Amino acid sequence: MISNSLYEYIDKESIGSDLICLLCHNPFIDPTVTQCGDTYCRQCIEKYMRNGSHCPSQSCNQLLSTDHLIPPSHNFISILDKLKVRCQLCEKTNINRGTFDEHIKTSCPECILDCPGKNIGCQWFGSRNEHDEHTKTCLFEKLGRMVDILYKVIENQSLDIEKLQKETQQQTTEIGQQKTEIEQQKAQLQQQQIQISDIQSENQTQKNGTASVCKQITILQEEINKLKSTALWFCK
Ligand SMILES: [Zn+2]
Ligand SMILES: [Zn+2]
Ligand SMILES: [Zn+2]
Ligand SMILES: [Zn+2]
């Protein structure tokens, strides 16, 4: 919550005593209810309990416990939110206390703001009134916007690079798989070559066998011829 020193209550005397904190004598800020049923600002009672152990209400004086601080009803909070205050910066009056933070953050013309280019070096600060005028001419602010654009460009490029890296990784995996497949095919080919050379040497052995059978046949024929001519000679 924005400092309550930036506003003052309108017609404070008319605010009911049931809305006033016994410890700070102001309308409750962030109220909390003790175990004994009394209400205090959270900050006030927490600060009080660092030294005191019994309820500050004279008529109550019961033992307090930090474990038993509960928020009040929504209704009670909304009554507090509707208390009327005046902004001490711009003098605007009749603001609901519950919307005062918003008034400071979004509309109070006297609220002091830093230049949006503060983080890149602009030292300017001033009221919201002058702020727009300043940002129109501030070089830092313009530079800041360019820096933002550049950041976006870099961010996009980083995303592209990431995508490419992922694709490359996938391709590497695929290449690895293809390599393994080629290795397997190579091994199969080698096995087939071994089988082929086995068959070739078997063929050779069979050829050799056939050749020697042929030779024997020739020898036998020659012997038969010899026998034939001997037989013919005897028949004469
Ligand atoms: Zn208080
Ligand atoms: Zn009490
Ligand atoms: Zn204001
Ligand atoms: Zn600036």
Question: Could you explain the architecture of this structure?
Answer:
Residues 21-56 form the RING-type domain. Keywords: Coiled coil, Metal-binding, Zinc, Zinc-finger. One of its GO terms (molecular function) is zinc ion binding. Pfam families: zf-C3HC4_2 (PF13923), zf-TRAF (PF02176). It comes from Rotaria socialis. With 236 residues, the protein is mainly α. It folds into 2 domains: 4-110, Zinc/RING finger domain, C3HC4 (zinc finger) (Herpes Virus-1, 2-Layer Sandwich); 111-182. The protein has 5 helices and 7 strands; from the N terminus they run βββααββαββαα. It has a 3-stranded antiparallel beta sheet with strand order 1-4-5, with no helix packed on it. It has a two-stranded antiparallel ribbon with strand order 2-3. The chain has a two-stranded antiparallel ribbon with strand order 6-7. Strand 4 and strand 5 form a beta hairpin. The longest helix has 97 residues, at 139-235. The radius of gyration is 52 Å and the shape is elongated. The N and C termini lie far apart (150 Å). The mean pLDDT is 92. One zinc ion binds at residues 115, 117, 122, 124, 134, 138, 140-141.
TL;DR?
With 236 residues, the protein is mainly alpha-helical. It has helices at residues 42-49, 74-81, 100-107, 128-137, 139-235, and strands spanning 7-9, 31-33, 39-41, 84-87, 95-96, 112-114, 125-127. It folds into two domains: 4-110, Zinc/RING finger domain, C3HC4 (zinc finger) (Herpes Virus-1); 111-182.
